[in-house]
Amino acid sequence: MVKKIYELPALPYGYEDLAPYISKEQLQIHHDKHHQAYVDGANAILQKFDSRPGLEFDVKAVAKELSFHVGGFLLHKLFWENMAPAPKGGGEPTGTLAQYINKDFGSFERFKQEFSQAANSTEGSGWAALTLCPVTDRLFIMQVEKHNINVIPNFKVLMVLDVWEHAYYLDYKNVRPSYVEAFWNIVNWEEVNRRIEIEILANSVNLVDNRRVLDMKLEEFKVNFDAWLESMK
Ligand code: MN
Questions:
Q1: Residue 188 C-alpha to ligand 1 middle, in angstroms?
Q2: pLDDT per residue over 151-197, tens digit each?
Q3: pLDDT, position 129
Q4: Which of 3.40.50.150, 3.40.640.10, 3.40.50.620, 3.55.40.20 would CATH assign to domain 22-188?
Q5: Is the pLDDT of residue 233 over 90?
Q6: d(CA 233, CA 222)
Q7: What's the mean per-residue pLDDT of the chain?
Q8: What gap in Å lies between CA 150 and CA 136, rounded to an integer?
Q9: Rounded to the nearest whole angstrom, what is the distance from the C-alpha of residue 29 to the centroid of ligand 1?
């Protein structure tokens, strides 16, 4: 079988397209240098794995390093995709996502306030993340330290905001709250809504007949999803 490695994904927009909220210079260095560094870090570990046997390594240390680099790689990929140039980006969520936000936070304003608070109060380097609990079907805000600490396993990450200094320092210096406020103008709500709908669909299949999602064909997915939606009315 072919062995895959990590590759830096292209941005879904141009480097200058998120300005004035994120400048071209800031976005370019973030994507080309910082995201690339996690790709390289993760692949260096894969190279170690591919050099088995004969190569001895400290499994504990490697596992920790892997979690950091792969976490960094994945979160940045999610981050680029959950932003879009204004006016496509920004505004307020609609559809399923809006319903869930109202159910679990009371209002969009309250959600925005709590998410911003998570982003502003992250100690050192980390992320604010909106996630969905597959057990209770509730939205939770996760505050990820570095790229991998405080993560709850198996919670789908729906939206992230990078609050490492490398994400905003060129544009906002030390004033993180201004960057967090600017973020709301470029959130791609359509993408975040797509993520929650896919996750609900996957969870609904599990709920309906207790089988593994990956065993199901797409048609069966759709039938079950409709049945589940009907049952929620
Ligand atoms: Mn970053």
A1: 18
A2: 999 999 999 999 999 999 999 999 999 999 999 999 999 999 999 99
A3: 98
A4: 3.55.40.20
A5: no
A6: 17
A7: 93
A8: 19
A9: 10
- Cα–Cα distance for residue pair 125/145, rounded to 1 Å: 6
User: For 8-62, how does the pLDDT look when each residue is reduced to its tens digit (9 = 90+)?
Assistant: 999 999 999 999 999 999 999 999 999 999 999 999 999 999 988 778 889 999 9
Ligand 1 midpoint to CA 96 (Å): 28
b/e 43-72 (16+ beta carbons within 10 angstroms → b):
eebbeeeeeeeeeeeeeeeeeebbebbbbb
User: From the CA of 205, how far away is ligand 1's center (Å)?
Assistant: 34
- Residues 122-143 have pLDDT tens digits of 999 999 999 999 999 999 999 9
Residues 100-109 pLDDT 10s = 999 999 999 9
Assess contact for 167 and 206: CB atoms under 8 A. no
Closest by Cα among 112, 39, 25, 107 to 69: 39
- Tokens encoding 207: 């709920």
The structural domains of the chain, with segments of one domain joined by +, span: 22-188
pTM for this prediction: 0.88
Distance CA 70, CA 14 (A): 24
**Strand pairing report for 126-132 and 139-145:** antiparallel
133 alpha carbon – ligand 1 mean position (Å): 25
Helix (H) and strand (E) counts for the chain?
9, 3
CA 35–ligand 1 middle distance (angstroms): 7
What 107-115 contacts at long range (C-beta under 8 Å, 24+ apart), as own/partner pairs, is: 111/139, 112/184, 114/141, 115/141, 115/161
